[in-house]
Amino acid sequence: MTVDWNSRYLDEDTPWCKGRAHPMLAPMIERILPPDFNGRVVVPGCGRGWDLAAIAASRPAATVTGIDVSEVALVGAAAHAASHPGIALVQGDFLDAGWLRQMKIEADFLWEHTCFCAIHPTRRSDFAVSAASVLKPGAVLTGVFFLDLDDGGEGPPWNCPRPEFENHFRGAFRIEHCGLAGDTFEAREGEEYVVIMRRRP
C-alpha cells in the first residue's frame, strides 16, 4: 500500500499533526541529552516540523535534521527552520538506507513520532535498518510507538505488537526502556509506548 503524503497534506487530512510537539519530547530530551548538547539529531517523517522546532529551541547548539518524503510537509517545516538556524530539512525517503548513506546523514540521537506507525508493516524492517545506518555506535533512538493499538487491521496508524517490534530492532539496538507514555495527546492515552534503545557497537 502506497500513501500519497503530498495529497494528505494538501487536503489537510493530517490527524497526526497536532500543531505542537509531542508532550513526551521535552522530558525525553531532558533525560537523554545534556544541556550543552551540540551533536546531531535526526527526525524521520518530520512533517510540518513541530518536534524539530522544540528540539532546536531546547538544544540550540545541536544540528537537527528533519527528513520527510513530502515536499508539501517540508514547506510547513521551513517556517520553523527559518527561526532556528540549527534546523536542516531534507526531502527523501528515510526507508532507503542506500540514499541515507549517499547523503552521509549520521546522528547521535534519533527522535521518532508518527513515522514508524505510518509506514506499511512490510516496511518496518527498512525503518530499523535505516535507523541503524544513521546512528553512531552508542547513539540513542527514542520516541513513541503504538505497540498495543487496535488498528482494526487497517492503517495508518498501524499497530506493531511488542514481540515483532523487538525482533525488528534487537539486532542493531539494545532496548533499555519500554513503557506507556506518561503524557500524550488527547485520544491517545494508554496507546503510546515510550521506547529508549541504544545502537550497538
The stretches of 5 or more residues where confidence is low (pLDDT under 50) are none
What top-tier CATH class fits best? Alpha Beta
Shape: globular
CATH architecture: 3-Layer(aba) Sandwich
β-strand percent reads 25-35%
Task: Look up the CATH topology.
Answer: Rossmann fold
Distance between the termini: 34 Å
pLDDT averaged residue by residue: 96
Write down how many β-strands occur, each being a DSSP E stretch of 2 or more residues: 7
Account of the protein in words:
By secondary structure, the protein is an alpha/beta fold. Strand 1, helix 3 and strand 2 (63-68) form a beta-alpha-beta unit. It is built from seven helices and seven strands; from the N terminus they run H-H-E-H-E-H-E-H-E-H-E-H-E-E. The protein has one domain: Vaccinia Virus protein VP39 (Rossmann fold).
